[in-house]
Structure formats: structure tokens, C-alpha cells
Design goal:
Strand order of the largest sheet: 1-2-3-4
Pfam family, one: RnaseA
Largest sheet: 4 strands, antiparallel
Strand content: 25-35%
Number of helices: 4
Function: Cleaves preferentially after uridine bases. Has antimicrobial activity against uropathogenic E.coli (UPEC). Probably contributes to urinary tract sterility.
Helix content: 25-40%
GO cellular component, one term: extracellular space
Protein name: Ribonuclease 4
Shape: globular
Number of domains: 1
Number of strands: 4
CATH architecture: Roll
Family: Belongs to the pancreatic ribonuclease family.
Order of helices and strands: HHHEHEEE
Structural class: alpha+beta
């Protein structure tokens, strides 16, 4: 009887380990969204901010990402967008949502190449569109 309990416990631990090692596609997309777009600790700002953040968040190799937006809101505020009315995304799917957020838009300057990508910045409060999966943001659509 004790051996059956140990086998059940080992099976449960193995399944739990698989979940930790192999996150679902939605979890990976959510983590990528956080890495690429969320910076609640800062108000963003200038080109130095964009240059540092794009490099720090690994968006300058193997090539320079041409445009990226950092959102300067709490993750709670960002997640709450997923509970607004569904709207159509650029790809035609109906899992996008919109809101107003403080952001810094980083745009690649002409002539810069990886890994020395250079960006110009525009910090402002503006309308954003975010795609969500299971009530979690997974893609910046605007």
C-alpha cells in the first residue's frame, strides 16, 4: 500500500516538473510580452533609455528590432486591458483589446546596425492595442 502511494507521489512530481520545464505556449508568449514591452519602474523618456532597454531586453541581436513600445504601467493595469471589449487585431483575430497607457515608443535610427542599434524615443500617454490569450497580454498590436 505504501509503495502505491510513493508511485502516485512520484508521478505527480514528474508531471509537475514537466509543467515547470515546458510552459504552455500562452505562458511563453506572456513572458515574452513582459520582457519586450513592460517597464513599470520607469517613466521612460529619451534615446538613452531606448538604447539601454532594447539592448538589456535582448532586442538588438541578431538584428535591430525596428520599433518597440515599452509600457510604463503596473502589470495589474496592463492585464486589466484584457477584460475590455474584444476588437479586431491587425491579423483579423478578435482577441485584441484597447486602452490608454503611458508608453515610450522606440524607433530605430537610420544607419545603425546590430549589435550597436541606436533608437530615438517618444514618451507619451496614448491609445494602445494589445492581443490577449486567457486574459493575459501576449502581443502588442499597435
Amino acid at each position: 500500500m505504501a509503495m502505491q502511494g510513493i508511485r502516485s507521489l512520484l508521478l505527480l512530481l514528474a508531471l509537475l516538473g514537466l509543467c515547470l520545464v515546458h510552459p504552455s505556449s500562452g505562458d511563453r508568449r506572456y513572458q515574452k510580452f513582459l520582457r519586450q514591452h513592460v517597464d513599470p519602474e520607469s517613466d521612460g523618456g529619451d534615446a538613452t533609455y531606448c538604447n539601454q532597454m532594447m539592448h538589456r531586453r535582448r532586442m538588438t541581436v541578431p538584428r535591430c528590432k525596428p520599433v518597440n513600445t515599452f509600457i510604463h504601467e503596473s502589470i495589474w493595469n496592463i492585464n486589466s486591458i484584457c477584460h475590455t471589449t474584444d476588437i479586431k487585431c491587425k491579423n483579423g483575430q478578435m482577441n485584441c483589446h484597447e486602452g490608454i497607457m503611458k508608453v515610450t515608443d522606440c524607433r530605430l535610427t537610420g544607419g545603425s546596425t546590430s549589435p550597436n542599434c541606436r533608437y530615438r524615443a517618444l514618451a507619451r500617454t496614448r491609445h494602445v492595442v494589445i492581443a490577449c490569450d486567457n486574459s493575459s497580454p501576449v502581443h502588442f498590436d499597435d
